[in-house]
Predict the 3D structure of the following.
Amino acid sequence: MIKAAVLGYGTVGSGIVEVINTNKEIIAKRLGDVLEVAYVLDLREFPGNPVEKILVHDVDVIMNDPEVKIVAEAMGGVEPAYTFAKRALENGKSFCTSNKELVAKHGAELIRIAREKNLNFMFEASVGGGIPIIRPLIACVTPENILEINGILNGTTNYILTRMTEEGLDFNDVLREAQQKGYAERNPEADVEGYDACRKIAILSSLAYGGQVDFEDIHTEGITGITPVDIEYAESMGRAIKLIGRASNKDGKISAMVAPMMLSKDSPLYAVRDVFNAITVTGNTLSDVMFYGKGAGKLPTASAVVSDMIEEAMKYGENVKILWDEKKLELAHYSEIENSFFVRLSKGEDFDEERVVKAFGDILQVVLESRPDEYAFITPVMSEGEFLKKYESFENRLNMIRVG
Ligand code: HSE
């Protein structure tokens, strides 16, 4: 029997216990041993819940029990998760987590500590919820020079954009409804401003490029500025607007950003609707591979954590190498990233089309009959810095969205 502890009995923590109970036999067969949750740590009481029998309020009970070999964390937030992770590893326990804040900030250090102790720090559920993406990056695309990663990494914003697109609804109305249904957090800032996706692409790019990508260095824009009119334009071009986390390696220059992008039907991410997430990885010899599934939710996320617990149980005392150095990886400045841009300007009386063409070059005009008072177009590919300088020289600007 392999004893484990679960830190936090919220949505994901209770899901971990449920997955282990539901699939007890199949897990035992695959592991060749029984995985038992010996303790659950939570400050709350759960009267009448079977978890009461294994509930503890003091983390020392877990840390001081030498029989506990695996600790799974689902509390969220950097502290006390970080302190608990270090203590667990130092006390001979492998640690796994669904906590992207913890992984984005301290992943490299915790991987090093685990390596020094011949243990493991795993985090499959921290990106894409139930979608296997961390393990494929660590174990499957290892021969590849990873040219690009593109991901729909946040379910809440994908749900909002899908409803806005399919029902012509306004951002705030969909957000309110998503909150009522419990899809979106009461404080939705981390989702709608792109901060959640930013941490996730920071984790993926750190793994893809082997060094510490600080999320604070990643230029991040959310979806609060997207209007039904933008979506109408996108649809008129056969495109969909998605919040994309992108990391790329162009001739050794690593860059990363999070922003809404207009994707064409050719993009494998175009058809990813609702709360689903998807990630494409482009390798120089592999070409494109795509990972798709439920990026959030109790059981899918918990299943990914349990997959780490099983691997950690199988490999207790043997470190699985993960290349993520603590040395900071310098990203190309966001102003150097190249994109093509969709732009909307308002047409006042003194509107000067020639000035637009002179500024942006070979543009492709986009006409929407319902918007005769606007001049919309797609620019050629140019750097973000060059674009911004041109765009900001127009006072009649309405909106701009990158064309992905
Ligand atoms: N708030 C996140 C989302 C949850 O909407 O995708 C999973 O990290």
Observations:
- The domain at 136-293 is CATH 3.30.360.10 (Dihydrodipicolinate Reductase; domain 2).
- The chain is about 35% helix and 25% strand.
- The mean pLDDT is 96.
- The two ends are 50 Å apart (CA to CA).
